Amino acid sequence: MSHHQIRAVQAVLATAAALGLAACGQAANGAGSSGLPTGTSGTPAPTSAGPTTTSSPDPSHRMTGTPVGQGPVVSEVAARGALMQKSGSLHPAIVRLGSGYEAATLGQGNDVVFWSSTGRTWTRNGTSTRLPVHSGNHGQVTVAGSLLPGAKHATFVVTGAFTGDGTGGALAYGHGPRGWSLITARPDGSLAPSGHGADRLGENGLELNISLTPSGLTTYSMWSPRSSAAFAMQTGRPTIRRWKASGSTLQLTGSNVVTANATEVTLPNPFPAPPGTSSLPDGTWAARLITAKQSGNTISMRVQPEKGRNCMSGAGVCFTAVGPRVSLTMDAYSPTSVLATNSHGQLKHLTAPGWAFTAVEDGASIPLSTYFTDGAPWVVPASLATTSVPSPHALLQVRDGTVTHADAIYTS
């Protein structure tokens, strides 16, 4: 252990002593972690941890405290200090488990080391592997942990820049029949410890991001490998799935995935005339989409209000701009419909979330059935439609400056 590490450990142990908490312990190897920090809510703040070196045991330190069964034998501060000294890690992820703790540290090379403690000693009881940081990236690898509702053991998440294109940044680990290992997807749709570590890119288990929440685990994933969508589209609009622990497995409880359906859109006759002002009042209006930019779940739109009329040819609708351009917002998951053709060339409206509406209406046809395929957050069955028909014109339902519904309008 380096001089700075020793001083840091000594400072933690001194704090524990000042609180009247004894922390001596032949810090034997062990695993443990704490739940949500006192006074916080929501996703636990990650506990950072860079690569560490393992120190030799120091028999002069032994953790002591109240008997097992009356809460943790020692405080988390004292337990953390003892594990820091035992493992050589300055940033262990510690989770309270009954009257003891489970923890994870980042060991030598690409090891993830797991520990447990009854409050008296730390025991090293498992090791798995993580991916190395990509050679072109710089940044710290961190580990965080939590005891998920319904779980018997802690779950740990290791984050880092594991790919060169930003498509993989998190791995989760849990305890199963074969001990501590990487959590991966199973054929039945659940997640569970796999019995192995993360050894190479492209394997099951690597996600864009993984968050620990008070109710369970949330994964943020790239779309299906079969999708032809650009990486920027997939990383900017990931497939989000929420999981709840059940013993050593995780069961899917919800997601942001929407499957398209055919829908009918009735256009107003006549179209209402926009007021020609710098804002649109509540109501249904025709407008041309100029720009759309998504930030989080909010889409900021710039539109040109229009007056619609039947075209002289009798096919479609023709528009005339009315007044200045207007700024509006729309939730990324507001209900919308887009235009598409099926394999027989038939034109139809498809239901879509707001973010997909703005993606499709950008002026270029998209092969929907290969772009938004299984695994994407918007799925278009190949039997329903094959190709998008972009139209910058839309019928917008507006309330308090927010678009609550949008339908693409066919123009000749």
List its salient traits.
412 residues; mainly beta; 2 domains; 5-stranded antiparallel beta sheet; 5-stranded mixed β-barrel; 11% helix; disordered N terminus; signal
Task: Describe the fold and architecture.
- The termini are far apart.
- The chain has 412 residues and is mainly β.
- 11% of the residues lie in helices and 38% in strands.
- The chain has a 5-stranded antiparallel beta sheet, with no helix packed on it. The protein has a 5-stranded mixed β-barrel with strand order 18-19-21-27-26. A 4-stranded antiparallel beta sheet has the order 3-4-5-6.
- It contains 5 helices and 27 strands.
- It folds into 2 domains: 3-255, no CATH class; 262-408, no CATH class.
- 43% of the residues are buried.
Strand content: 35-45%
End-to-end separation in angstroms reads 74 Å
- How many β-strand stretches? 27
Oligomeric state of the chains?
single chain
* Main sheet makeup: 5 strands, antiparallel
Please tell me how large the radius of gyration is: 27 Å
Counting structural domains, the number is 2
The strand line-up of the biggest sheet is: 7-8-9-10-11
Large-scale geometry: elongated
Average pLDDT, to the nearest integer? 82
* Secondary structural class: mainly beta
Provide the low-confidence segments as ranges: 1-70
